[in-house]
Amino acid sequence: MDTKSLMIEKATLLFQQKGYKSVGVSEILKACDVTKGALYHHFPNGKEELLIACLKSLKEAITIDMEDIFKRHSSTQEATQFMINKLIRNLETEGKLTGYTFSSIVSEMATVSEPVRQACNSLYENIQTIYYTKLVTEGFSNEAASDVALLMTTSIEGAIMLCQTQQSTAPLKTISKLLPTILKG
Amino acid sequence: MDTKSLMIEKATLLFQQKGYKSVGVSEILKACDVTKGALYHHFPNGKEELLIACLKSLKEAITIDMEDIFKRHSSTQEATQFMINKLIRNLETEGKLTGYTFSSIVSEMATVSEPVRQACNSLYENIQTIYYTKLVTEGFSNEAASDVALLMTTSIEGAIMLCQTQQSTAPLKTISKLLPTILKG
DNA sequence: CCTTACATACCAACCGGTCTGTTTGCTATT
DNA sequence: AATAGCAAACAGACCGGTTGGTATGTAAGG
Questions:
Q1: pLDDT tens digit sequence for B73-112
Q2: Pair A84, A169: CB distance under 8 Å
Q3: Which of B17, B149, B148, B160 is nearest to B87 (CA)?
Q4: Could you tell me which residue ranges the HTH tetR-type domain spans (chains A, B) (predicted)?
């Protein structure tokens, strides 16, 4: 793999796990086994530009992944439950959440850096659009679909945070169980 | 006010707004107009001990505030909607979220520091207990009340994050609107 | 031969934390 | 009541380590 992609991949993982400020450039460099020359060659504006590249890459990855899941399951409920299960499995095997979440970056950077905020916003919008589209095909009105998509996004994102503090997958499992309620519209 | 309380108050605000790593001790010191001597006198273990003190103080403040709201409103729905409105007003006037949230600390520190994780967990548990208690008095079964309390917590916490990225209060407003759905059990 | 893709050395700024004063207020003794 | 003593409550200088970032060097490829 080329150096640039490698750096984005490794940095994404580190940022997701530890947040932005907690990860030093030297740490990223070490993980990729490259030096500063490489970083500032590919990302002239340094760390923050790398973060934004990570968010864009993450957006693509999540979109592809979710769209595939939502294509393969007939109902929103089944698809979402499958997705949450994937999150849970991920959390159980790796110990840390490295899948769809990037909440640390949001809460740490959204109020500080405008470009980062926009990248995060774009990511959330994409996720909600996937829910929305599926819900509309199921007969939901535009408004109802939009509302439910938001509720799904927030409750899953919130559940991920609770899983971190509780060090258990219970919150995500409960949300998965409550999906029928959420999807009542 | 005594120095220690002042430091907790100012630091809490800064930690909520910027996260943990992003706030330097010197920044806190400047905000309080004190010096390092004062900090390491009251908090011998430094910055992290101060953070934990902030979380404990925040827990008390939130508990008192929420219990008061839930005492003054007959139904869970009314109480929660009032609470969300308060969050929205807070967000609109101050521009930043300084009320109930501390998501930045969770996602940044939960996987790094065990004492901090426990403090955050204790805070979330308190919030859920307040919901739970009220729901049980309304006739919910123990399990249903527990589930709904979780869903309320996660969706509000998630909505706060979306408000930050969108720079709007729309997500919280939508969650407030969807409360009847959430409370169907 | 000149651009791309790095490596390496270097830097000022800042980080959290420690150490050593110094002031202040209470308290026990005379 | 005066004073001695002593601990609490800071202030401020200082420290090694790390931070993100830059400037220069260099090897490879077209």
A1: 999 999 999 999 999 998 888 777 666 788 889 889 998 8
A2: no
A3: B160
A4: 1-61
CA atoms lying within 13 Å on the CB side of residue A89: 6
The CATH code of the domain that includes A90 is 1.10.357.10
Distance A160 CA to C25 C1' (A): 51
pLDDT value at A184 more than 90: no
Describe the crossing of helices B25-32 and B3-18 by its angle, rounded to 10 degrees.
130
Report how many domains make up chain B: 1
DSSP conformational letter for B167: T
Query: In chain A, what residues touch B157 (CB-CB under 8 Å)?
Result: 154, 157-158, 161-162
Is the pLDDT assigned to residue A185 strictly greater than 70? no
The predicted-structure confidence for A74-99, as pLDDT tens digits, reads as follows 999 999 999 999 999 998 987 777 76
Please tell me the distance from the alpha carbon of residue A103 to that of residue B158, in angstroms, as a whole number: 9
Distance of alpha carbon A124 from alpha carbon A109, whole angstroms: 15
Could you list the residue range(s) of the whole structural domain that residue A142 is in? Answer: 3-182
Distance from C-alpha of B39 to C-alpha of B51, rounded to nearest angstrom: 12
